[in-house]
């Protein structure tokens, strides 16, 4: 089913592993997780190996991504947020490289699976909740009680705050997942148009130009989306961490 | 997917049936479920995500972040240090310029002092020469005046003698008689009112 837009998300076993009835196989998804880590860590490791005082081009890419995330975190969560820098940086680099690897034809997109993005989102929210309670104790619950709200409205506002807090991991994970999924399906559909129109003879080849142009344009857009979604994921992580650091805002 | 797949099926009427089966695809692997919602793969994905992301986090927090942070900090320090060094050198240069200016001013002062002294000396020497020349001239003038006076006195004295001789001669010629010199001198003295 090469032309089926869904088959690209199919998970295939490479090394079947089953422990206690759980299927823990090493799959194509696992392979691309490993590839993502290898590419991201390898790039960052090798380009900074020289520790150049005057950076080479590749080293300055690593430094730029570092400073990009650092300024994002400092703006979002203040200088106290810098203790979470390794986590935010890892999330950003992991999501970014996974998204970009997914842009290669025939490559699997790790972030197009909801369970992966949800796990990453739960890591963020889990960190927020655990750190929030550890640092502020029950004062962390002030997060749900905005100051300056009239008493009558308080139950309603608190309810809204709680719901919005609970929906955060869902919105955070679904946003990334849906963007990657929809983007890849759209690309595949338009690329499929090119092939199927091309098989209709001369007229078909002429009209196949249109979906081809679309495919090229969408490819560019998808590269933007791949970066943008990693950025959005990291920025929202910073904002949520800010809640854990300063709950009584 | 259910929106997208029929659209795809329409575009490819010759393979409609294929697409239909494809839409509910992955029969072989996923049991007919849309792959991202196939819960049978969740355990494996979570496990491998935990392993890979955990490893990635460790690498980042233990190696990469300290390394890049170190590089950036080292660069910042180095730039600050270089700026300090540059400031220090500039200060040094300023000091050198100030010292040079000072020395130049001193030298100028000294030079003008030397010139002043030389001028004073020359002036004094000229003055001294002038005074001595003047004194010499004065002496000469005084000598000249003295000798004139002497000559004049002598001449005046000679006038009396000449007058006496002339008067004696005149008297001798006119009167024929001889007069003594003393008489003549007395007569001349009375005549000239002396």
Q: What is the structure about, briefly put?
A:
The complex is a heterodimer of chains A (249) and B (194). With 249 residues, chain A is mainly α.
Description:
- The complex is a heterodimer of chains A (249) and B (194).
- With 249 residues, chain A is mainly alpha-helical.
- Chain A has one domain.
- Chain B is mostly helical.
- In chain B, helix 1 packs antiparallel against helix 2 and helix 4 crosses helix 5.
- Chain B is rod-shaped and about 200 Å long.
- At the A-B interface, strand 3, strand 4, helix 1, helix 2 and helix 3 of A face helix 1, helix 2 and helix 4 of B.
Question: Secondary-structure blueprint of this entry?
Answer:
The complex is a heterodimer of chains A (249) and B (194).
Chain A: E1 13-15, E2 18-19, E3 22-23, E4 26-27, H1 28-47, H2 57-77, H3 85-102, H4 114-136, H5 154-198, H6 202-207, H7 209-245
Antiparallel strand pairs in A: 1-4, 2-3
Helix pairs in contact in A: 1-3, 2-3, 2-7, 3-7, 4-5, 4-7, 5-7
Chain B: H1 4-11, H2 16-23, H3 27-30, H4 42-175, H5 181-191
Please indicate the percent range of residues of chain B in DSSP E strands (runs of 2 or more). under 5%
Order of helices and strands of chain B: HHHHH
Report on the biggest sheet of chain A: 2 strands, antiparallel
Low-confidence stretches of chain B: 1-30
State the oligomer.
heterodimer
How many strand segments of chain B?
Answer: 0
Number of helices of chain A: 7
What portion of residues of chain A belong to β-strands?
Answer: under 5%
Radius of gyration of chain B (CA) equals: 70 Å
Question: Which chains make the largest contact?
Answer: A-B, 64 and 55 residues
Structural class of chain B: mainly alpha
- Kindly report how far apart the N and C termini of chain A lie: 53 Å
Shape of chain B: rod-shaped
Kindly report the average pLDDT value of chain A: 90
Strand runs of chain A, count: 4
Which structural category do the helix and sheet elements of chain A fall into? mainly alpha
